[in-house]
Amino acid sequence: MTFFRGFVFGVVVLSQLSESVKVSLYYEALCYDSTKFIAFQLYPNYSQLKDYIQLEFVPFGKATHNFVDNKWLFDCQHGPNECKGNKYQSCALAQNNGQDKDVAFVHCVMRERNPADVSKMQKCANRVNINWNKISNCARTAQGDDLLARNGNKTNNLEQNISFVPTVVYDDKYDDYLQERSLVDFVAVVCSKIAGERPQICANRRLPDRRFFADYSFF
């Protein structure tokens, strides 16, 4: 996606020549590390990066899925409630409400004490103004199963099997080096991927030399 900033025949357009970076986040509804990444790396910096990134949320993680007797069966790392949370989030994201609303909804849900609590997900949907009835109907039908299975296929098709959740992939290419550094300084990694003019948040930003476990301990 190329942007320009300026006035052309009275229409305001962005002038910086820069290709947006595709960022795919593979995560789980009840994963503590997923919550940390979204709450402390992605969400606080999103407003300054949003014009430079194309975000893709993939809620599934280290789950498995099998099609048995004409229905999908799921087994999630943190139990059935996580499968439910992943499914509801998949249904919300499938509505194509736009990146801003997707980020706001996922952040709102993942910050809850129990992100798989249906009442909390409904509260978040109402807060960011997305259609809860569509989400609920989807999650309680085969549509929700199909969407979650699709996320499972996408997760399983990664070049490298997921060994840590969350996993962050840039431009559809998994990179171990960037994965580790994303958990420490997501902004620095995104900035390193932006071609052309960069946002102010990238000023004097460099990739961390290495990842220490303590670097990813926010609490």
Q: How many strand elements?
A: 7
Q: Strand count, sense and closure of the main sheet? A: 3 strands, mixed
Gap from first CA to last CA = 37 Å
Order of helices and strands: EEEHEEEHHHHHEHH
Number of helices: 8
Shape: globular
Name the average pLDDT.
90
Question: What structural class is derived from the secondary structure elements?
Answer: alpha+beta
Rg of Cα set: 18 Å
**Per DSSP, what share of the residues sits in E-state strands of 2 or more residues?**
15-25%
Please list the strands of the largest sheet in the order they lie side by side: 4-3-7
Helix content: 40-55%
Low-confidence stretches: 1-17
Account of the 3D structure:
This protein is an alpha+beta fold. It contains eight helices and seven strands, in the order E-E-E-H-E-E-E-H-H-H-H-H-E-H-H. It has helices at 32-49, 80-93, 99-110, 118-128, 132-139, 142-156, 176-184, 186-193, and strands spanning 5-8, 11-14, 21-27, 53-59, 64-68, 71-75, 167-170. The strands form three sheets. It has a three-stranded mixed sheet with strand order 4-3-7. A two-stranded antiparallel sheet has the order 1-2. It is globular.
Condensed summary:
By secondary structure, the chain is an alpha+beta fold. It has eight helices and seven strands; from the N terminus they run βββαβββαααααβαα.
